[in-house]
């Protein structure tokens, strides 16, 4: 090697080129380019897994950190709303850095699958951990947590004996007494989709018309706003996911404690009924994932007993595994029978659900 080149660096470049302009200029350019390439690309890249997620809970970040500590695999996350993440994945195509897509509601998971954003998950550990009704039959996504969408009522104004089923909420006795969020909300769309799968479109439309006629106000806000509305006397009952009440129960704010003291939880369709409506948050490996092995390991990690217990205790969700104890707050609401319909139906009947909600005047 020429004495002016030391450890990949060119010393006195001008003098080196002037000695033999044609020959040495080519050598110099080649060495500079080679050095730049070498410094820009390390010999070994750190192990990593990249996640696009619409979940925004501390419990998730804590679990990702625990996975990093155990495996040495770096977890990178991008948070956003479901639709924005779906569009980003479509736009990026095969150039997307995402390995996993985490989203809430089986309806959203089905939408992502229909948009060809997933590839099949290949892990018997994962399939053994998640019941069949909580995952895609073709393996494109699996549930991580369960949420129950139930009736919450004012303890002083409603007796539990007056409540029975979701279908019963179309009764005129509930006129002006019900709060629920907008029909644009995927949780409500999936609830209606579950009714379509059970009763058919005609009966579900009849139910929706009677149900919306009983609203206390035009839908607005999130689930916690509906619960607060009941506490404030705007209405007597609300439809909400249970974990929202769990978070309010765990709050240290005096106003939240006062609110929770007024609210009861009722699980509809028990007894001979089909069971209360449940949904999931879930995960799939993206179609163009570059780190499939690491992505699979992370899903397996999130389905371990310890991880599932973290979801249950920190975010007041129900674990997808049946062998995990519930948090004290959730356990206090009592045991219930869950609807065993496969959650894939929520995406299957989503378009029908939206049309029915529109026809019923649910805005």
3D structure, described in words:
The protein folds into three domains: 36 residues, no CATH class; 147 residues, Periplasmic binding protein-like II (D-Maltodextrin-Binding Protein, domain 2, 3-Layer(aba) Sandwich); 146 residues, D-Maltodextrin-Binding Protein, domain 2. Strands 3, 4, 5, 6, 7, 8, 9, 10, 11 and 12 form a ten-stranded mixed sheet that branches. Strands 1-2 form a two-stranded antiparallel ribbon. The protein is of the alpha+beta class and 363 residues long. It is globular, with a radius of gyration of 27 Å.
Features:
3 domains, 16 helices, 363 residues, two-stranded antiparallel ribbon, alpha+beta, D-Maltodextrin-Binding Protein, domain 2, single chain
Give a quick summary of the entry.
Helix content is 44%, strand content 16%. The protein has 363 residues and is α+β, with helices and mostly antiparallel strands.
- Helix percent reads 40-55%
Q: Using the coordinates shown, work out and report the CATH topology of the largest domain.
A: D-Maltodextrin-Binding Protein, domain 2
**What is the domain total for the residues?**
3
Determine the mean pLDDT.
Answer: 90
CATH classification, class level of the largest domain:
Alpha Beta
Number of strands: 12
CATH H-tier superfamily of the largest domain: Periplasmic binding protein-like II
- Judging from the principal axes of the Cα atoms, what is the shape? globular
Helix/strand-derived class?
alpha+beta
Largest sheet: 10 strands, mixed
* Low-pLDDT ranges: 1-44
Distance between the termini: 76 Å
Could you tell me the strand content as a percent range? 15-25%
User: Could you tell me the radius of gyration in angstroms?
Assistant: 27 Å
Number of helical regions? 16
The assigned CATH architecture of the largest domain is 3-Layer(aba) Sandwich
| Pattern of helices and strands | EEHHEHEHEHEHEEHHHEHHEEHHEHHH
